[in-house]
Specification:
single chain; transferase; alpha+beta; GNAT family N-acetyltransferase; 23% helix; Bact_Acetyltransf; 139 residues
């Protein structure tokens, strides 16, 4: 659901994507509508997490829904799948970073049970950006 304006192409270079797809502690989920890819989510556990929240946590690193498919429940479905996977692995927490200026995504995650618990900065191209860290307990 994140949108930082135009993302640098390097974030999706073939080499980086291949590396991420081969990471055993990462899972990619794709949602399609009528056979058309509409949304995807990347989940990380263990050392694949971009910040180390421990072995009982899962990170939603990426959740994107194409604009033509927003507000159709795809994001909710994918986040619910993340909670189900976390429960099946006996994990206690799911966390994510959401851009400080992405209020629609923040509201979405709050509605899904996430609370702001911190923040971190990162570089996007040449700009320093701030993400809110949001976490939710796995019940």
């Amino acid at each position: 659901m994140g949108e930082h304006g135009r993302l640098p192409p390097a974030l999706f270079s073939p080499e980086l994507v291949k590396s991420q797809l081969s990471e055993p502690e990462s899972v990619f989920m794709l949602a399609s509508v009528g056979g058309t890819p509409a949304a995807y989510m990347q989940l990380n556990t263990g050392k694949a997490q971009t910040e180390q929240f421990g072995d009982t946590s899962m990170e939603i690193e990426r959740l994107y829904v194409l604009s033509d498919f927003k507000r159709q429940g795809l994001g909710t479905m994918l986040v619910n799948q993340a909670f189900e996977r976390a429960r099946n692995r006996n994990l206690s927490k799911i966390w994510l970073g959401v851009w400080e200026r992405n209020e629609p995504a923040q509201r979405f995650y709050q509605a899904m049970g996430f609370k702001r618990t911190g923040e971190h900065t990162f570089t996007l191209g040449t700009d320093i950006q701030t993400d809110w860290i949001m976490t939710a307990a796995v019940n």
